[in-house]
């Protein structure tokens, strides 16, 4: 079986392309996962094929990445409008990182929305490989009625619902065809010395030789050929499928590529997992592509026995099935297989770094509808994070509530639907509380005496403490300068412990940071003094001093790396400024053509707004990662509003 992924932005007709390709020579067999990955098995040219139709939303990019891990080649569907080329940028980036041979298909050519050369030029801004135009459109006025193959120099007229008709190249297209073919030959000659010599000698190379060169350099992943058509009318589908059949590499090339990326012995690499999901009454289903011999139910894979092997289309298990190299199959009761992963019979090998999904930008607290679902939700989220690497599951620091980090609102909606439909857990979501702190603006001193007599042994401790602001980031410090044994040495750790306890909640209601406490004098009683008494005296004394130290609210500030296509860079300074952030600088992204990386400091309370503004400004393409940098003072009405909100019942920070 040969396997390819069809990917690209939403509304580019990917699913229609897969449907038409699968129906060229018979009836395809289709299966779907809850995450939107559709698998279509079909036969073409007496060979078995499997098409992986990756979900279109940019928030589901991780599933497209994982599909590439199991694919011999891929088809990138793009719009015929030049201004929409940027929407393909994330996919071109992933394809380049994965080193998957790619054919670019400009779909919906029946909708005149711009010149093809402008589409290619716009896409080339984001493609690290040369985009090699293999066909040009034949037009009647503004309408595309056919195409001309630049290698064979044959022209076809599209016919609705039928195979295209072979025609002579129209005079109106002859000049453009000659120009485009010359460009094609020139670009191909960069990868073949024989062809370069033929062109220098002004000899016309035969079509068979050109097809062979084109096939070789696609298999070597050195160019991206560009084909055109309109899948909804069936136009260009046969040519696209023939290009896949003759030019896409076999499964052995994928095995070699993955072995090199994972530093695995190629002869031991047996399979690759690329997708998983949970089904009611079934459990975890893992999708696997066989790369070697010897796989069957009960065989050793990834260090344990392979569970039941199932057909993709009908989900039926058959212990007699022996997947051959290249076959794609499903397995259940194989929970030991992580996704994605490279597998030998005895070990699981981590996938290449390029399979890492973008950092989740949206954080939400999930609240179960009933208390009895609390533990069930925790276990279920852990399961889902195993099958969806775009999801990160944490706990909110202040409350311990379930905190999920998702790619965006669409991803969040799909997660909540899965929890409800598959696991019968209904949840609501809310934004997490930003983590605020407080400190003091001026030093103070306090003399506190703790005395308590209740019959029998009493409690006595007397401390004199100096409290001062520390420099930012130093945290809490404690010191002592007592002399003459006024506070015995064995009680000093209790004084420090009491001071630390006082830092848990300051006058504004938040944890206190960046404060130094020094014990400089005190008294004790030979009978009534104890560690408990000195801890209590220190705690109460420090609390009193904090209330006199001009408390200041502190907000978290995060260092953010914002990844966006270069055409959107001009809008980012305004976005960061509007969020009261600070731009630190930007550079070209050396790993992705046409992308920039902005570095900025963003207040923690503005990260949600940054995610929304970034999605809006970049059509959902831009994303950011964040790391905590420091706390900084926050004053005025904004600070007052935060303190008032924190004082309300049920609000946790």
UniProtKB/TrEMBL annotation:
GO terms for molecular function: translation elongation factor activity. InterPro entries: EFG_II, EFG_III/V, EFG_IV, EFG_V, EFG_V-like, P-loop_NTPase, Ribosomal_Su5_D2-typ_SF, Ribsml_uS5_D2-typ_fold_subgr. The keyword GTP-binding applies. SMART domains: EFG_C, EFG_IV. CDD domains: EFG_mtEFG1_IV (cd01434), EFG_mtEFG_C (cd03713). Pfam families: EFG_C, EFG_III, EFG_IV, GTP_EFTU. Transmembrane segments: none annotated. Residues 433-550 form the Translation elongation factor EFG/EF2 domain. Keywords: Elongation factor, GTP-binding, Nucleotide-binding, Protein biosynthesis. Residues 552-642 form the Elongation factor EFG domain. Catalyzes the GTP-dependent ribosomal translocation step during translation elongation. During this step, the ribosome changes from the pre-translocational (PRE) to the post-translocational (POST) state as the newly formed A-site-bound peptidyl-tRNA and P-site-bound deacylated tRNA move to the P and E sites, respectively. Catalyzes the coordinated movement of the two tRNA molecules, the mRNA and conformational changes in the ribosome. This is Elongation factor G. It comes from Rhizobium aouanii.
């Amino acid at each position: 079986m040969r396997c390819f992924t069809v990917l690209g932005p939403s509304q580019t007709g990917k699913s229609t392309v897969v449907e038409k390709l699968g129906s060229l020579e018979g009836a395809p067999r289709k299966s779907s996962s809850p995450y939107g990955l559709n698998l279509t098995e079909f036969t073409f040219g007496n060979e078995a094929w499997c098409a992986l139709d990756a979900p279109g939303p940019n928030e589901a990019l991780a599933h497209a990445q994982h599909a590439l891990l199991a694919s011999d080649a891929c088809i990138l569907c793009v719009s015929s409008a030049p201004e929409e080329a940027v929407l393909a940028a994330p996919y071109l980036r992933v394809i380049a990182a994965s080193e998957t041979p790619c054919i670019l298909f400009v779909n919906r050519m029946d909708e005149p929305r711009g010149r093809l050369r402008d589409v290619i030029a716009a896409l080339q801004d984001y493609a690290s490989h040369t985009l090699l135009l293999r066909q040009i459109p034949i037009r009647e006025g503004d309408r595309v009625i056919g195409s001309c193959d630049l290698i064979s120099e044959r022209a076809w007229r599209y016919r609705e619902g039928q195979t295209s008709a072979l025609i002579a190249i129209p005079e109106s297209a002859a000049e453009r065809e000659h120009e485009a073919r010359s460009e094609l030959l020139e670009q191909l000659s960069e990868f073949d010395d024989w062809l370069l010599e033929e062109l220098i000698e002004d000899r016309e190379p035969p079509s068979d030789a050109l097809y062979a060169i084109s096939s070789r350099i696609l298999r070597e992943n050195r160019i991206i050929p560009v084909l055109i058509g309109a899948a909804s009318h069936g136009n260009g589908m046969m040519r696209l499928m023939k290009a896949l059949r003759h030019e896409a590499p076999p499964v052995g090339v994928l095995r070699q590529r993955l072995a090199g990326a994972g530093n695995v012995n190629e002869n031991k690499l047996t399979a690759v997992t690329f997708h998983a999901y949970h089904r009611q009454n079934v459990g975890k289903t893992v999708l696997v592509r066989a790369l070697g011999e010897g796989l069957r139910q009960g065989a050793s894979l990834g260090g344990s026995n392979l569970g039941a092997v199932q057909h993709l289309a009908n989900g039926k298990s058959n212990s007699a099935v022996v997947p051959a190299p290249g076959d794609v199959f499903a397995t259940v009761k194989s929970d030991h297989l992580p996704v994605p992963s490279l597998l030998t019979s005895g070990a699981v090998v981590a996938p290449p770094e390029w399979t890492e999904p973008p950092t989740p930008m949206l954080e939400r607290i999930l609240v179960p509808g009933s208390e009895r679902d609390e533990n069930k939700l925790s276990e279920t989220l852990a399961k889902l994070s195993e099958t969806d690497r775009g999801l990160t599951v944490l706990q909110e620091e202040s409350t311990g509530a379930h905190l999920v980090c998702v790619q965006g609102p669409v991803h969040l909606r799909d997660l909540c639907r899965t929890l409800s439909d598959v696991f019968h857990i209904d949840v609501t979501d809310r934004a997490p509380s930003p983590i605020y702190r407080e400190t003091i603006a001026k030093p103070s001193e306090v003399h506190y005496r703790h005395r308590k007599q209740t019959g029998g042994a009493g409690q006595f401790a007397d401390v004199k403490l100096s409290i001062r602001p520390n420099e930012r980031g130093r945290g809490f410090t404690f010191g002592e300068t007592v002399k003459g044994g006024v506070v015995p040495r064995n009680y000093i750790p209790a004084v420090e412990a009491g001071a630390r306890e006082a830092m848990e909640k300051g006058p504004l209601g938040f944890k206190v940071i960046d404060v130094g406490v020094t014990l400089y004098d005190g008294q004790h009683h030979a009978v009534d003094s104890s560690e408990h008494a000195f801890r209590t005296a220190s705690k109460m004394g420090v609390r009193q001093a904090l209330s006199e130290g001009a408390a200041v609210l502190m907000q978290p500030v995060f260092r953010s790396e914002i990844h966006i296509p270069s055409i959107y860079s001009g809008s980012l300074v305004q976005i960061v400024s509007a969020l009261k952030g600070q731009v630190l600088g930007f550079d070209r992204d050396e790993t992705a053509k046409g992308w920039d990386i902005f570095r900025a400091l963003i207040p923690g309370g503005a990260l949600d707004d940054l995610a929304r503004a970034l999605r809006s400004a970049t059509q959902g393409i831009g994303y950011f990662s964040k790391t905590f940098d420091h706390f900084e003072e926050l004053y005025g009405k904004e600070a007052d509003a935060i303190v008032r909100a924190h004082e309300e019942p049920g609000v946790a920070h």
